[in-house]
Structures are given as structure tokens and as C-alpha cells.
Amino acid sequence: MTESNEPEITFFAKQERIYPKRVWGRYRKLKWVAMVITLGIYYLAPFIRWDRGPNAPDQAILIDLPNRRAYWFFIEIWPQEVYFLTGILILAAVALFFVTSLFGRVWCGYFCPQTVWTDLFVWVERIVQGDRNKRKKLREGPWTFEKLWKMAATHFLWLVIAWVTAGSFVLYFNDAPTLVWSFFELNVSSTVLAFIAGLTFSTYVMAGFAREQVCIYMCPYARFQSAMFDSDTLIIGYDEVRGEKRGKHKKGEPWDGRGHCVDCTACVQVCPMGIDIRDGLQMECIACGLCVDACNNIMDKVELPRGLIRYDTERRMSLPEAERSKKVVHLMRPRTFYYVVILALVGGVMLYALITRAPQELHVLHDRNPLFVALSDGSIRNGYVLKILNKTHDHRRYSVSVEGLENVVLEIQGAGDIQPENLYVEADSVGSFHITVSAAVEAGPPVPVTFILIDKQSGERSVYESIFVSERG
Q: Are residues 163 and 274 in the same domain?
């Protein structure tokens, strides 16, 4: 065999690492504020207490998987109330569409977890290794003692942040102070440790290495964001009319016959996505505004007005400069009005459901085998399983009765002397009882019956429709 000297053909370019340059300005300050607030909420929220009484957890935000409950301050969601979760997801999606139609991808640029933790990791990287040029030179240079300790320190700090992030996530599923103290006592379950290890690794990889690739290749939002844009959506844009023809500029030179863009590429160097906003709006743009800060700083240096790159609408950008000030930004338009209506409807339905939700629920399941039993006295007996949901935080006693049959005899099957007039259910739990209903009825089609549950303390009433079977079909 002979070796071929032909170059290897590749169909995909290698992903080039992005080294965002430090910049300071209005939008960079907003990003710092957003980072501090969002991370503060994420790390500290599990430790907020909320008094629900002696028989319920006092953690304000808790997803209690063993007991199948979700708590959010004064709201408690049971598995049977999964429609609340559906409503929350619908509200979140429509709110995202609404904000996007107004201000573009501000969620991506300021509040998305991927953006927030990537920003934090880049900040750590900059603190240890230096700004853009130093980081690039260090990574591309040979392995020296300086490179070794700086890279080691960077990755160690990344792992610490990732571990704290993973541990904080697990706190939302456990009592936070108890779990934290269990770490000091070295008494943490293997399940918790496995979740923390997996989340630590994913955070480390996503924020430390994947970064912008998550937004470009993994997040579906970037793919359909343009469907929510219109000519009145605020987006980041480059004023091509004012900026072109671009070129280098020396102090004292006239601006006649040329644009205000000095082709310094500062907007490209600060972009965490590595794009050139001067090429127009692109799928990768997350509307963080750092290119606006970088360009404004350059305009200040060359003594030109700010706003060569700015937040503006496509409609205003297309107008001559003299007419732009006359064109206002329309926040309320058909698209945004529809989103507001949907938000109001879904929010109203959820609020009504929360206000009118009953403190108890009754579910009845008819026995399948046997469907009925013919007793020696000629009466028919049916068996049922009653599920009583006590959604209050107090122990309660209930009475159950049946309507639709005459001379009904109710009996509770099980250990002890349990009477239908005195069913005990602990706070925030489900009581299960097997009950038999006997009545003197002739064989015939199923008879509709109604089970009535009454809280003996509050008088709250719940009903459930079922059937009484007296012959095989």
C-alpha cells in the first residue's frame, strides 16, 4: 500500500474557543445586578422558612418527593393537582414569548441559567488568568509552571462553584439545614451524593467548556425566536447608515466621506457568542448588550455620539436619521395584546382554582373482584376503597354516608373498631379505607349512588358519584 499525500477533507470547521474581553458600561452593570440577584435567590431560597403548622414542613420552597408534595410558600400542590404545574409551564412559556416580542432575547442575555453560570465561570477565569489576550496566550502557549498552576486554580474554582450549585439544587428536595448539617456529620445518602456528582459534572462541563455551544446547538429557543420578532421588537442592531463605510481613524482626521465605525472589532471581542453584530441580527445573538457598551466606549474616545450599536427596532433603524426621533416604539400591538390576554386568562383560571380549592377530596374505587356478594338475608353487598385526602395541616375526623339506596348498611373493613361516622386521617396525608355497602335491592342494572364525606370539625362537604352493582352484566 502506498500512502496518499492528499490533504484530509473535512466538512466541519473546528470550534474555536471564544475569549470574551472585559468591558464596562450600562449593560454590563445590568448583567452583574441580574447575576447577583438570580444567584442569590438560587443559593439562598432553600433556607427561607415558612410556618405551615406543626404537621407540615417549614421550608418555604420544597419538592417533597417521598410524600409527593410540592410547597411554594403558602401554596401546596398535590399529585392530583398536576394541572397547576401545567398552568405554571404555560404561564412561563407565554411570558417568555411576550417579553421576547417586546425586548428580544433579554431572557437569554441576562437570566438564563446557562448565561448566568457561564458569566460566573468567565469572571473566575479572568480573575486567575487575566483578560482576553492573556487568557488566549496562556492557553495557546507551552506548558509552564505558570500555566499549570493558573489552569489548575481555574478548574478547581470551577469545580467548587459547580459543587455548590449542585448541592443547592438538591436542597430544594430536602430540608436544607438538615442536609447541610449531614455533610458535616458525614452522613449523606448515596442517592444524594450521586445526584450532586452528576449535577456538578454537568455544570462544570456546560459553563466551563460548552458555553455558547449550548445556546447554538442544544437550546431550541434560538431556533424559533425569530417567529416572535416583528419590526417593532427591540433588538440590538448596528446602524449601517451611520457606520459605513468603516475604516481606521486617527485623531484629527476628518469624517467626511466615511462612516463612524472605526473597525476596531471591540464589539466582536466582548461578545460571549463570538459574533459580529455588524453583519446583522444573527441566531447566536443573546441580546446581552455588551457590544453596545464596547462601541459606546469607543465612540466616547473618538468624540462621536453614542448609539452606533444600540437597542432599537428594525422599523426605526430603517428610517433616515432625521426621522427616527419622531417614530415611537410601540409596546402594545396585536401580537403583544394576544400574549397579555392569554396570560390574564391562564393566570385568572389558576388563581380561581387556588382560591376555591377544597381542603379535602374524596375518591371512591369500586371493587372489581367480586363485583358484588349476595348475602343470606337476600341483600346485596358491594365493596369500595375510599381515598380521603386531608389537605389541611391538622388531623381531622370525617363521616361518610351513601345516598341513592334505602336502608343502607355501611361497614369499614380492617383492624380495630372503625366506624363510618368517625374516620381519622392525619394532617396533610391520604387516608385509605375499605368500606362495604349493603342494601336490599333486586337484581338489575347498576344503581347510581353518591358517597358524601363531611369534615366533623369544619362541616366541609365532598361528594363522589359511583354505582351499586346487583347483577353480572
A: yes
